Amino acid sequence: MLRRLQFKVDKYRKVEFFFFLTYFYLFRILTDFEYNIWERHIFGVDLSAVEYNIAYGTSNLIAFYSFYKILLHLLIKKKVWQFIVFIVGFLICYSLYNKAVNLLYSNLPFLSEGLRNSALKYLRFRSIGYSLAYVLKEFLAVGSLAYFMYSVQQDEQLKALKEQQLVSELTHLKAQLQPHFFFNTLNNIYSLALQRSVATAPLVAKLAEMMRYILYKSDENLVPLKDEIAFIQNYVEVENIRYRTAINIKFDVQGIDDKSKISPLLLLPFIENAFKHGIEEEAKEGFVNIIICKTEEELTLEVNNSIAKNKGGAGGIGLVNVKKRLEILYPEKHKLEIQNDGKTHQVSLTLEMR
Hints:
Strand order of the largest sheet: 2-4-5-7-6
Number of helices: 9
CATH class of the largest domain: Alpha Beta
Distance between the termini: 21 Å
Largest sheet: 5 strands, mixed
Oligomer: single chain
């Protein structure tokens, strides 16, 4: 986060640096060069004009860079009255500033005599010392930059707030998911322990592997898809240990590569839901069929399960949470279809892989 913030600060400084150098040096020099060609029919570089533009370009750059920084601050703070007072004050101070600049230039021995004489001539003027039309042009140019920078920074802040809100919400959803998952799995272990089943120890071992994955991977934004599939496979094996041959469980994986990544624990609730709310109370019949297929652009999850006779449907906090996560992580990049005819429950999820 700090690196990204520093990158944005550096980016803004580069834009400011490029604008002020271009506007107060390059444009002035190119304007004089064009004037010499088309009006005075002088071809080549006029060194006296270059010196003049660099000298007065520097003085104006200093004045209007200060104006820009204060203006940007007032825009960010949204201080309207201070902004109006600042404009009037700047016009007064800019007149005094020009007088001081001309006084300085007229006494600098390393400047050419022509530039010193010009500064002395400007110093003797009884006017305010600048053209209002010229200053208005500077106001518009520098003010436009300040407003642009203000808009960009406002957008960046809004984006950062939205990202922070999404991270907080995802953290909350994951915090709900993990206890829910362990609660269900510990229930399975408890049931087997009551039966003094020899499958209790293998189930505990599998649970330990899954706990390790959740502890070290669930806080990451993306994890390798193959690791997520391995985690799901462990979960299915845990259910196989629990149900043995009573339930027909099929798990098929196709096209999984080493490069694809996915948000952790995103697929689990659909599979967990099939066991928890579909066949948990079935003793002699029932099925769960799981197919995960990865193509070049998409990941598809198909889950079909029978519905227990005394179950009215499927639900649970895990399924509610995963729908919210899909909306946050894959907005308009996922398709979820859930069908229930009273006998079978079908889930079809398609993700556009990032």
